[in-house]
Amino acid sequence: MNTQLKDAKSGNITEAMRKVAVSEGVTPEFVREGVAKGNIVITLNNRRRDIKPIGIGKGLSTKINANIGTSGDDADIDKELEKLDVAVKAGADTVMDLSTGGDIDRIKKIIIDRSPVPIGTVPIYQAACENLKKGRTISDISEDDMFNVIQRHGEDGVDFITVHCGVTLETFGRMEREGRILNVVSRGGSLLIKWMMYRKEENPLYAHYDRLLEIAREYDMTLSLGDGFRPGCIADATDRGQVQETIILGELADRAMKADVQVMIEGPGHVPINQIKANILLQKRLCHDAPFYVLGPLVTDIAPGYDHITSAIGGAIAASAGADFLCYVTPSEHLRLPTVEDVKEGVIASKIAAHAADIAKGVKGAIDRDIKMAMMRRDLKWERSEERRVGKECRSRWSP
Q1: Domain 61-366 classified CATH 3.20.20.540?
Q2: Which of 62, 271, 292, 357 is deepest in the core (most CB within 10 A)?
Q3: Are the beta carbons of 214 and 1 closer than 8 angstroms?
Q4: In sequence order, what are the residues at sequence separation of 6 or more whose Cβ sits closer than 8 angstroms to the Cβ of residue 337?
């Protein structure tokens, strides 16, 4: 079965590539060439034909992801569906279902069926939850448990998955030898480290990476290679553990490309402003320009309750330096599960950051809305129907 990447390498322009080209205002050949080179991905499971395909990568507008999902303390699916609707209305390009409570398979399927945008997941969360429900510890998770969950996510129509393949014994050793204030803050990364420490074995997602590639290729799921060693505070940014993981992810990205599997790279995290551009340049060089998906980054650690602002500052700088995909951060980051209002505020802040970055990057059409708004302010002609329409569009973009 062909994948978007295999078709692109063969010179074939797919329907998804054409749709991405139309939405981005570029040529289908531009998209095809970007996919073939690995600097653009199209997040679209081959079992999903009822959603708008999203292009992420070089020369395209900066995309935004919103995280939702149940927990063991709150497994209300209706609440998560409301968050999904609010996130999409506010402008989220993708949504990740990070559910860890309730019937996870059922919840995932409902969210996929409801969502008009691509859905991502972190399969290791479900593998851990299913084992805990059986009274087993993290160390009891088998290699088959991990890969079987990934297979199910592909069958259900998940469009991209975060997999922490760069969490290895070598990377963990480097981080420990240097030392950190906050060690490992990635949930997926910490689960795999605990598994490796108990079993004295290498991470199966790394050791048996070819098995992962086979599953991803079957469903044309994009692999989002997770940053298990992302810094959890700005003092830990750009250390040896983080850089070592990025080196490994670059090598794994090359292997995915050869296997016709689309891949993007996840990045930090908490990063001071003066290190953001260096982080982007480092990732782009080591990962051969694969699309870069960053969480924030947050530029200070002292703003609990306002981390959507610290994230928007970092996101604007990161995207203007070349990051392609921003994961939103809500006001409740580090404090609690996000409310519906938190989701709305997080998406709006990230969308503004992405738009500001797109202007700086010269993305086609990015500045057009700003020019229209400036002309309306200049002419004070808000009563004309066209100007009212443009003004309403600009305002509603940030006010769902």
Answers
A1: yes
A2: 271
A3: no
A4: 71, 73, 74
- CA 220, CA 92: separation in Å to the nearest integer? 22
Q: What is the pLDDT of residue 396?
A: 56
Query: Cis link prior to 297 (omega < 30° from 0)?
Result: yes
Decide: 364 and 104 in contact? Cβ < 8 Å.
no
Beta strands in 191-243 (DSSP E): 222-225
Degrees, nearest 5: CA angle 68-293-1? 90
> Using an 8 Å Cβ cutoff, are 75 and 48 in contact?
no
Distance CA 214, CA 226 (A): 18
How are beta strands 63-68 and 94-97 bridged, if at all? parallel
Encode pLDDT of 31-86 as tens digits. Answer: 999 999 999 999 999 998 789 999 999 999 999 999 999 998 899 999 999 999 99
Q: Any idea where the domains of the chain sit in the sequence?
A: 61-366, 369-398
C-alpha pair distances (Å), 127 with each of 66, 121, 295: 22, 12, 23
Strand ranges (E), the chain: 40-43, 54-57, 63-68, 94-97, 119-121, 160-163, 222-225, 263-267, 292-295, 325-327
Element (H or E) spanning 16, and its range? helix 15-24
Q: Tell me how far the alpha carbon of residue 247 is from its chain's centroid.
A: 19
pLDDT lower than 70: segments of the chain: 381-400
pLDDT number for residue 400:
42
- In angstroms, the CA 253 to CA 241 distance is 18
The 10s digit of each residue's pLDDT in 102-147 is 999 999 999 999 999 999 999 999 999 999 999 998 899 999 999 9
In this prediction, residue 312 carries a pLDDT of 98
**C-alpha distances out from residue 398 to 90, 117, 353, Å:** 6, 18, 12
Cβ pair 287, 246 in contact under 8 A: yes
Measured torsion, CA atoms of residues 31, 32, 37, 40, in degrees rounded to the nearest 10? 40
DSSP labels, 247-264: HHHHHHHHHHHHTT--EE
